[in-house]
Design a protein that fits this description.
single chain; 197 residues; alpha+beta; SH3 type barrels
Length: 197
C-alpha cells in the first residue's frame, strides 16, 4: 500500500501540473473562439450544414495580427488615434479604456514591467508580513499631503496574482527582497508552497 501511495503521489506531481496548464489554455482558447466562432459557425451550420471547430480562434489571431500590422504604419496610427479620440467622448468608455490600455501596455511592453520588485511589508497590521510588488513611485500629490516618500505596492491574492489591491506605503517601511518577480509570483500562486531558492 505504501508503494501504491508513493506511485500515486508521484503520478499526481507529474500529471496534475500538465493537466492544469492545458485546461487553462483550453478554456482561454474556447473563450477566444467563442467571440468569432459562434456567429460564423451558426451561419455555416444553417447555410452549409457543417461547422469548423477553432475557426473563431484562428480569425481572432488573424484580426490581432492585421490590426497590429495596420497600427504600425503612419496612416494606421493616425486612424487609430482618431478612433481613440471618438471612443473617449463616451462617458463610460472614457473611464475604462485609458486604464485598460495602460495596464495592457505595461504587461506587453518589453521596455517596462508591470511589477518592478518584490517587497516585504507589515500589512494589514503590525507583526503580520505580506508579500507585495512595487508597481510605481507614488504620485506627487500623495507625497505632499502625507509628507512621506510613498511607493505604489500591489498586494496580490493567492492563488491568482492578477487580483489584489493597491496600497501606498512609505518607502522606509518597505523591505526589498532579493528574489525575482517570477519567483514572487510562484510564491503567491502556490500559496507559499513553492519557496524561492
Amino acid at each position: 500500500m505504501s508503494k501504491i501511495k508513493r506511485y500515486f503521489a508521484s503520478g499526481l506531481l507529474v500529471t496534475l501540473p500538465v493537466f492544469v496548464t492545458f485546461y487553462i489554455l483550453f478554456v482561454a482558447a474556447r473563450f477566444i473562439d467563442g467571440i468569432w466562432g459562434k456567429v460564423i459557425n451558426y451561419y455555416l451550420r444553417k447555410e452549409l450544414g457543417f461547422t469548423i471547430p477553432g475557426l473563431g480562434f484562428i480569425l481572432a489571431i488573424l484580426t490581432v495580427l492585421i490590426v497590429g500590422f495596420v497600427a504600425t504604419n503612419f496612416f494606421g496610427k493616425r486612424l487609430f488615434q482618431t478612433i481613440e479620440r471618438m471612443l473617449l467622448r463616451f462617458p463610460l468608455i472614457r473611464q475604462i479604456y485609458p486604464a485598460a490600455r495602460q495596464i495592457i501596455s505595461s504587461l506587453v511592453s518589453k521596455k517596462s514591467s508591470a511589477f518592478k520588485k518584490v517587497v516585504l511589508l507589515e500589512y494589514p497590521s503590525k507583526g503580520i508580513w505580506s508579500i507585495g510588488f512595487i508597481t510605481n513611485d507614488s504620485f506627487h500629490e500623495a507625497n505632499v499631503k502625507t509628507s512621506e516618500d510613498l511607493l505604489h505596492i500591489f498586494i496580490a491574492t493567492s492563488p491568482s496574482p492578477l487580483t489584489g489591491f493597491l496600497i501606498l506605503v512609505p518607502k522606509r517601511d518597505v523591505k526589498v527582497m532579493d528574489i525575482s518577480v517570477e519567483q514572487g509570483m510562484k510564491l503567491i500562486i502556490s500559496g507559499g508552497i513553492v519557496k524561492p531558492k
